[in-house]
């Protein structure tokens, strides 16, 4: 290269020659100066001709391509290696099954002008005849992106997705990269915890769009669900403040089938795995026969068992009772901070900081409008977040309190309610 690049785009890959070349072709169509870009392809234990294909592509590519090979066996280590050898001040992580729209890089750069982390939109692309679990997965992703795009959204560690992510190289180096103990186990979330702790400003950009051509099958998806169970236990060990938020729901009433599946996962995992194999067979049959209700129930049971199988494998049956007993859902306690929105105090920044840890009770002239429990792993609470929470609950809680306040006392509110 004639001069130092401004952007290092890192693509981890493993035996995906075709999707990788499609990803590289999409980068060649970016509406930025490509001479300012270096693309680092990190091939992890590739047994196909990925490396040869990349070398051939690099010979005529409109940007500088660097190829590195190693045998780490994890995307986290592969991304870390790419970041270590990157020379640009800005890093963009893009998975090899992504197809970037022409404005992806420009949108990330624009976001980083006012934020520390840019989370891009990864639009799920489904096969011609998607299964139910694939449609559910797409709905889950689209809901998450829609939530992050909502003005006033309070970002948390769960919003960090490394498949389409940009941040400053100095910040990534200061954090030490992805924690390899979590490799393949929600390492994105763990990085998110450290980003939040560092006070990093997270922002989501629909304009930084890529099409995600995920080729996972049902077996792969269920394996990921099991790894999620393992990762959640690991997260709690590293960040005890997440214990109640992640596992507090286990104290809530559940149906008989869920109780039995959890029992199988804890006490008889071998029999449980045999039962899971039967569930999957029945799931395929119900999918073929379009037995919608049966299929949905079998899918839910398969997911439930796999998640708790992962949790049980990481905790161990002897520690189950003590572990779950300590998991209490975050709630608004007796020491919660109370704020009257009709008389907003001048020291609101300090009050919100304390309230974010202990919980908040928002009222209007004494009428309770909203209770906000602590949210571990979320960015610092601001008035913008409060305004969004109030608008979300307006018809249910806020407007009745406002009406009572207006008609009973006739005072004006200092808080904007619309």
Automatic annotation (TrEMBL):
Gene Ontology molecular function: any one: transferase activity
- The keyword Magnesium belongs to this UniProt entry's keyword annotation: no
- Glycosyltransferase 2-like domain span: 8-171
One Pfam match, given by its short name, reads Glycos_transf_2
Report whether Transferase shows up as a keyword of the record.
yes
What keywords are assigned to this protein? Transferase
Which SUPFAM superfamilies does the UniProt record give?
A: Nucleotide-diphospho-sugar transferases
PANTHER family xref list? GLYCOSYLTRANSFERASE, SLR2126 PROTEIN
Q: What is this protein called?
A: Glycosyl transferase family 2
Give the originating organism: Oscillochloris trichoides DG-6
């Amino acid at each position: 290269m004639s001069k130092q690049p401004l952007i290092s785009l890192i693509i981890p890959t493993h035996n995906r020659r075709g999707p990788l070349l499609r990803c590289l072709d999409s980068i060649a169509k970016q509406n930025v100066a490509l001479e300012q870009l270096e693309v680092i392809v990190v091939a992890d234990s590739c047994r196909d001709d990925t490396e040869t294909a990349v070398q051939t592509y690099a010979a005529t590519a409109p940007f500088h391509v660097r190829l590195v090979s190693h045998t780490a066996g994890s995307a986290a280590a592969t991304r870390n290696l790419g970041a270590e050898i990157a020379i640009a001040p800005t890093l963009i992580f893009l998975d090899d099954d992504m197809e970037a729209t022409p404005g992806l890089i420009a949108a990330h750069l624009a976001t980083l002008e006012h934020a520390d982390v840019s989370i891009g939109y990864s639009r799920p692309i489904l096969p011609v005849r998607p299964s139910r679990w694939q449609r559910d997965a797409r709905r889950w992703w689209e809901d998450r992106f829609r939530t992050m795009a909502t003005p006033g959204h309070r970002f948390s560690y769960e919003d960090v997705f490394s498949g389409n992510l940009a941040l400053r190289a100095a910040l990534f180096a200061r954090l030490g990269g992805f924690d390899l103990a979590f490799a393949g186990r929600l390492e994105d979330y763990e990085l998110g915890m450290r980003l939040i702790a560092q006070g990093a400003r997270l922002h989501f950009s629909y304009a930084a769009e890529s099409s995600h051509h995920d080729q996972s099958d049902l077996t792969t998806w269920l394996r990921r669900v099991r790894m999620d169970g393992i990762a959640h236990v690991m997260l709690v060990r590293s960040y005890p403040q997440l214990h109640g938020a992640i596992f507090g729901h286990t104290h809530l009433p559940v149906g008989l089938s869920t109780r039995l599946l959890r029992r199988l996962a804890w006490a008889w995992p071998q029999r449980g795995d045999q039962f899971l194999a039967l569930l999957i067979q029945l799931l395929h049959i119900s999918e073929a026969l379009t037995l919608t209700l049966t299929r949905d129930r079998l899918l839910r049971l398969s997911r439930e068992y796999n998640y708790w199988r992962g949790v049980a494998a990481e905790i161990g049956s002897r520690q189950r009772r003590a572990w779950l007993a300590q998991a209490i859902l975050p709630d608004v306690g007796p020491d919660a901070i109370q704020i009257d929105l009709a008389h907003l105090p001048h020291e609101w920044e300090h009050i919100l900081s304390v309230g974010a840890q202990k919980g908040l009770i928002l009222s209007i002239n004494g009428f309770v409008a909203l209770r906000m429990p602590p949210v571990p792993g979320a960015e610092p609470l601001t008035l913008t977040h409060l305004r969004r929470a109030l608008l979300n609950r307006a018809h249910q809680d806020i407007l009745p309190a406002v009406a009572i306040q207006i008609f009973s006392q006739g005072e004006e509110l200092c808080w904007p309610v619309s």
